[in-house]
Amino acid sequence: MHSRKEQKGTDVFGRTDSYQDPTFLTTYLDTVDSLLPIRESKQRLYNLLDPQAGELIIDLGCGIGTTVREMALRTNKSTRFFGIDNSQTMINKAEESTPEDLVSSGIISFLKQDANNLRFGDETFDAAYADRLFQHLANPKQVIREIVRVLKPGGRLIIADSCWEDLRIEGISEEASGVIRKTLLSIIENPLLAKFVWELMIQEGIKQESVTVEKIKLKFKGLKSSEAVLKIKEALKIGCDSGAISIEEMNMTLREIKNANPDDITTFLDFYLTRGEK
Ligand SMILES: C[S@@+](CC[C@H](N)C(=O)[O-])C[C@H]1O[C@@H](n2cnc3c(N)ncnc32)[C@H](O)[C@@H]1O
User: Most exposed among 183, 208, 230, 237, judged by the fewest C-beta atoms under 10 Å?
Assistant: First the structure.
């Protein structure tokens, strides 16, 4: 209902390894993960997950491993984390960026796996989370089904994701801000799913009474931080090539960005943290 049947191929994180320049995507995550609003959202995710000593925890779509590393460093050493991603580029970068002892001691294991088809037995994990994975999935329902399968009874699931519906950029015209919003709504596979993912969680076996939804507004101040999170030029190019926006709209928007006062630009993006138990 909330996902499209055919993958359009415009969502770069839905096909990381076949993207023309996968290191562009690892560098993107490295930069974005250091931005204050993203750090605050990860802190909130950590609090909601509340990892306990001795637990087995899975991070789905772990990317370069920033979240799972930070979780592991703050949690009792007896807790075991598994970071999975379907991109070998991401897994390699995650391993490279992780202190050797966290991997050799088995505290964190990075594995190349598709979240649609997890190679773990039923009822393996105490908790699972996915940080900005679901917006990129062609079949989110199947992935939730897989997560619920590998969770123990009572296991926690947290899905943290952006909802692009009300994306707004101040410091440029409403028209130019609208072109960027229209572009991202078109090129991201599931731009609104974050808002509705609780429904899929309940349909796939998460207890209705356990579900909570928290919405926070991420605020990226200045052109540099807005550019880091939106990659405006690259996104507009994909939007234009796929026919989502016209070349005139792209050029008008790029002109406005170029002429704007960088300090006046602020990006507002809704972010949802949805938690539930099996
Ligand atoms: C936007 S990144 C988020 C990375 C990380 N969770 C973070 O918060 O920095 C999305 C990640 O999901 C991965 N991904 C996309 N589809 C996937 C799938 N079907 N199974 C596993 N990983 C997937 C991508 O390769 C990418 O690393």
Answer: 208
